[in-house]
Amino acid sequence: MSVWTVRASPLVGNGIGPVSNQNLQQRKRSLKLVPCCTTSTGGDVLDVEEIRERSKKWQWKGRYSINYLLSSSNSSSPSNSPQLLLVHGFGASIPHWRRNISTLSKQYTVYAIDLVGFGASDKPAGFSYTMEAWAELILDFLDEVVGKPTVLIGNSVGSLACVIAASESSKTLVQGLVLLNCSGGMNNKAIVDDWRIKLLLPLLWFIDFLLKQRVIASAIFDLVRQRDTLNNILLSVYGNKESVDEVLVQIISEPANDEGALDAFVSIITGPPGPNPVQLMPRISYLPVLVLWGDQDTFTPLDGPVGKYFSSLPPQNSNVKLFVLEGVGHCPHDDRPDLVHQKLLPWLAHLPATAAPHTPF
To answer: What is the pLDDT of residues 38-63, one digit of tens each?
Structure first.
C-alpha cells in the first residue's frame, strides 16, 4: 500500500519575512533568484517581478490573452524528459509557484499558466467560468504551445482541472498527473456527501443569492480582497505560518483589483461545481499519478469524501502514489516546498521516457 506520511523537520528561521516597500522596489530592480532564508523550506525563491518580466502571452481561441511562463535550463533537460505544466488554485496565479519553478527547471522544462479569470490573464466580461472551460484551456495550451508530452501539476481547483483535462486528452499528450490537495469541484457545493458541507449548504445557497446582487457582491469582494482579510485567510489555509508573508498577500491581492475580477469571483463561487474527481479518475487509471496531501487542510480535509477517495486509490491501482504531508495545509507547494520536492523529483525521475514530440501549430 503506497500511502506514506511525510513529517516536517523543525522550522528554523523566519522564512522570507515581511517585506518593506523599499525592499520590494529593490527586488524589482534586481531581477534575480532570491535564496529562501528558511532551511526547512529550502531551495530558491523566484522573484515575483522577474516572473512578470519573463512571462509571455498566448491568444486562446483568438480572443483571450492568457499569461504564461516558460523556464528551463536547456543543458540539463534530457530531450526525452517530460515537460511540466503548473496550474494554480483558486485566487492564485503563476507567482504562487515561485518556490518551485527554479528547483524544477534545473532538470525539466517548466511551464506555468494563469487560468482565464486569474493572475495576468484576461478576465472577460460575461465569460462563463466552469471547470470544463479551464480543462479545455489546458488542453489547447498543451497542443498549441507546449507540443510535447507533459506532466500536469495542479493545486486545489487546478488539480481538478488537470484531472478533467487528462480524462479528455489523448494518451500521448498527458504523461502524468501530480495532484496537490485536489478539490472536489469549482466550489464547495460539489461535496454534498460531506456532513460539514451539508450543515453549511443553506448558508452557501444564501451566499449565492447575495452574490447575485451586484451591490452586495461588490461589498463582499471589497472585504475579501483587503490585505488584512487575505492575510487571515492565508494563515488559516497554511500549516507553516512562516510561508505567509507580504509577498504572498501581494500575489493574491493584486489581480483582485483588475477589471473583471469581481465578475470572475461571483461566477466561480455561484457557478456549477463541475465534474467530480471520483467519477473521472477511473478513466485515467493507466496514467502515473502522484497525490500529495497536506494533513492540515481545512478546505479539502483528508478525512473528507475527496481525501478519503484518493487515500483509497493506491491499494487498488499501482499507478497511484499517495504521500500525506504532516503539518501542511491546502497549498503544499508553497507551504512546505521542501517536502513536495522531496517526493516529486524522484517520482518524475522514474517516469517512462516520452515518445517523440509533435510540433505545435
So the answer is: 334 656 899 999 999 999 999 999 99
At residue 4, the pLDDT reads 62
Q: Which of helix, strand or coil describes residue 149?
A: coil
- Per DSSP, the three-state class of 266 is helix
CA-CA distance, 147 to 338, in Å (whole number)? Answer: 30
**What's the CA gap between 168 and 162, in Å, rounded?**
10
Residue with cell 500549516: 239
Stretch (H or E) spanning 341: helix 337-349
Q: Measured at the alpha carbon of residue 165, what is the angle toward residues 159 and 169, in degrees to the nearest 5?
A: 145
Q: How far apart are the two ends of the chain, measured CA to CA in Å?
A: 43
Query: What are the cell numbers at 209?
Result: 443569492
The Cα 140–Cα 142 span in angstroms is: 5
Rounded Cα gap, residues 98 and 333, in angstroms: 9
In the block, which residue shows the cell 453549511? 200
Q: Could you report the per-residue pLDDT of 148-171, keeping only the tens digit for each?
A: 999 999 999 999 999 999 999 988
Q: The C-alpha cell of 45 is what?
A: 525563491
By three-state DSSP, how is residue 89 classified? coil
| CB distance 21 to 340 below 8 Å | no
CB 146 within 8 A of CB 82: no
Helix (H) or strand (E) holding 5, with range, is strand 3-6
Which H or E run includes 151? strand 150-155
What is d(CA 182, CA 299) in angstroms, rounded to the nearest whole number?
Answer: 10
Q: How far apart are CA 155 and CA 32, in angstroms?
A: 26
User: What are the cell numbers at 231?
Assistant: 492575510
- Which residues lie closer than 8 Å to 355 by C-beta, 6 or more apart? 149, 172
Question: In sequence order, what are the residues at sequence separation of 6 or more whose Cβ sits closer than 8 angstroms to the Cβ of residue 228?
Answer: none
Regions of the chain short of the pLDDT cut 50: 1, 9-40, 355-361
